[in-house]
Structure formats: structure tokens, C-alpha cells
Amino acid sequence: MRYCYGLIGVDFPERGFLLFWQLPLKDKLKYFEIEAEIAGLKGIPERGRRAEALASLLSFLGANPVQKVDKAFEARYGAGISTYLELTS
């Protein structure tokens, strides 16, 4: 796959293969564009607002968006999104 992406001029991070395999390439690339912004949500003090902002950022992924990108996020930040953003009780 890396070879194929290279042929079409796509610089795809190795962590990209941790994203849900059925996501279209444009959605995978968009995730990497907003990944740091997702991590930055940690600065929002209210848990409910963090959850709303996360849902808004990931809305382009459809149903179960966190599950689709969680492994790639964890590979970079050392924790899954819900844990990292302290969204679980």
C-alpha cells in the first residue's frame, strides 16, 4: 500500500494503517490534519464541552468515529482518545 500511495503522490504516515481499513483515503488524510487539534481539546476544562468538540471534529467519520481512529491516536499520544481527553468516568 505504501508503494501505491507513493505512486499517486500521497505521503501517508505509517500510523495510517492503524485507522479503520474501510475509511476512504480522503478521510484518513483529513484525520491526520486534525489529529493535533483533537489532542488540543485536552485544554477545554469542561468534560461535556470536550466531548461536544470531539464529536464535531470527527463528525465526518460517521458512526463510531472514535473507534475508527483510536489506534492511530494512541500510537502517537500513548493513550486512546477517550482516556487522553478524560472523557471516561
Strand and helix layout:
Blueprint (H helix, E strand, L loop, with lengths): L1 H6 L17 H16 L6 H12 L6 H13 L3 H4 L5
Describe this structure in words.
By secondary structure, the chain is an all-alpha fold. The protein is 57% helix and 0% strand. It contains five helices and no strands. The longest helix has 16 residues, at 25-40. The protein is elongated. The mean pLDDT is 93.
Helix content estimate: 55-70%
* Proportion of residues in β-strands: under 5%
Q: What is the count of helical runs?
A: 5
Q: Alpha-carbon distance between the termini? A: 38 Å
Give the biggest sheet: none
Describe, in short, the structure shown.
By secondary structure, the protein is mainly alpha-helical. Helix content is 57%, strand content 0%. The protein is built from five helices and no strands.
List keywords for this structure.
89 residues; mainly alpha; 5 helices; 57% helix; 0% strand
